[in-house]
Design brief:
mainly alpha
């Protein structure tokens, strides 16, 4: 019972912590302190909820608990307690009365402000991404290390240093304007899409998707598109998120198990979101500039959205778009996706050759989708024994429970097939022996 509550608290924390940390950061002007206060609220929940049950609105409960912790901290500051003494002297900090009035308002765009803060140019790109995944996606250090193909101690140190740098620089909790906004735009878009991706296919945990995270990312993308209307890539990003969001109802079985794109019931796709996405993509193209990485990915998503059935998919066009994407955004993951598209367009043998070349890439050695894609091509080629081994290996690397379950299921199907083939061949051999052939 207790472990069940703990799992539920963990899931709620992943959904609610970004908002709580964003609001607390507005209050105390310090990300590290805001995170500590939010985690204090979660610890209180872990103590209380196994005894009294999970409240009807756990997010509001956690927010209220965090508020009490923040107010307690303010009171301690008044008597100059050592722990928050340095922060307490900050003239930027809210006093208790201001905190109460500010807290009573809506969360508003605090999440977007937090993203701009964590995307401050004084931080390296790696530090911005690590900090955002921690604060806005609720990932653990281990999960971030897995997502960014980095060592766990490296990520831990990176996050600590980033928070300290922001605190020392007194980074402002606001959306910048003019050139400063444009300077941070690329990283902000990257972070918003990271946030969306974490909701679209969760790195770890028991749920395959986190729709609320995607909704927040999409909402922030739309706001960003209003702030910088003349930036085509922002419209490309919104287009990408709109089209991908359209598939949510078709992506998961009632049991929570993922459904692959080619197996989805396209009648469940949200066609309003598809139309919104296609319109945003047209806006991105209307500027007449070469398409950037988000508009190109949105174009790929549009190919899937416009195909009435999986068999109608224009894989040759998608392969060409991935070729263009690999030039503007070269990365091992893009190359893996390109291999998939080429394999679907020109045959599994071609795709398998490209995937096997990627097995030497260090960054992909622990990436479960590489052996998963290899297993898919091997299965298409009828090499079920090898496909079984690839899916088993992919499952051993996967951190998401539902993703791992799907891979094990595909491995079991391959094993059943090749064992059946072995039985048929054995019976054929036995028959030939009996007939003296």
């Amino acid at each position: 019972m207790e472990s069940h509550v703990h799992r539920k608290v963990d899931a709620i924390w992943r959904m609610e912590s970004p908002k709580i940390i964003a609001v607390l950061t507005r209050m105390v002007r310090d990300i590290s302190l805001a995170e500590d206060l939010a985690q204090d609220a979660m610890l209180i929940a872990l103590q209380k909820w196994p005894e009294v049950g999970v409240p009807d609105n756990p997010g509001a409960w956690l927010m209220a608990a965090a508020k009490r912790r923040a107010i307690d901290m303010m009171r301690r500051n008044k008597v100059q307690q050592r722990k928050y003494e340095e922060v307490g002297r900050s003239s930027d900090m809210f006093d208790e009365q201001e905190m109460n009035s500010a807290w009573d308002g809506s969360v508003g765009d605090d999440l977007l402000r937090l993203i701009f803060m964590t995307c401050h140019p004084i931080l390296s790109r790696e530090a911005r991404l690590s900090l955002t995944l921690r604060l806005l996606c609720g990932l653990t250090t281990d999960e971030i290390a897995h997502a960014l193909f980095a060592a766990e101690p490296t990520i831990a140190q990176r996050i600590v240093r980033a928070k300290r740098t922001l605190r020392d620089a007194r980074a402002e909790f606001q959306i910048p304007e003019g050139n400063e906004l444009k300077e941070r735009l690329e990283t902000v878009m990257e972070v918003i899409y990271l946030l969306f991706n974490e909701g679209y296919a969760a790195t770890a945990g028991s749920s395959w998707i986190r729709p609320l995270l995607c909704q927040e990312a999409l909402r922030m993308g739309r706001i960003l598109a209003e702030l910088v209307k003349k930036e085509p890539e922002v419209h490309g990003l919104v287009a990408l998120m709109e089209i991908q969001s359209s598939r949510f109802r078709a992506r998961v079985h009632s049991s929570g198990e993922p459904i692959l794109l080619q197996d989805q019931n396209r009648g469940l796709w949200d066609h309003l979101l598809i139309r919104r996405g296609l319109a945003a993509l047209e806006r991105a193209k209307s500027f007449g500039r070469p398409l950037g990485p988000y508009a190109l990915q949105a174009s790929i998503s549009a190919c899937h959205a416009e195909a009435r059935t999986a068999e109608d998919t224009d894989w040759i066009k998608i392969a060409a778009l991935y070729e263009a994407l690999s030039r503007v955004l070269p990365s091992p993951v893009v190359e893996l996706n390109r291999a998939v598209a080429i394999g679907m367009a020109f045959g599994a043998e071609f795709g398998l050759q490209l995937v096997e070349q990627l097995e030497t890439v260090k960054a992909l050695r622990e990436y479960h989708l590489l052996p998963s894609v290899k297993g898919d091509f091997l299965e298409r080629l009828g090499r079920n024994n090898e496909a079984y081994q690839s899916f088993q290996f992919a499952a051993s690397l996967a951190q998401n429970d539902q993703g791992r379950a799907l891979l094990l299921k595909r491995a079991a199907k391959c094993k059943q097939t090749f064992q059946g083939e072995g039985t048929e061949k054995g019976m054929e051999t036995e028959l030939k022996n009996q007939m003296g052939l």
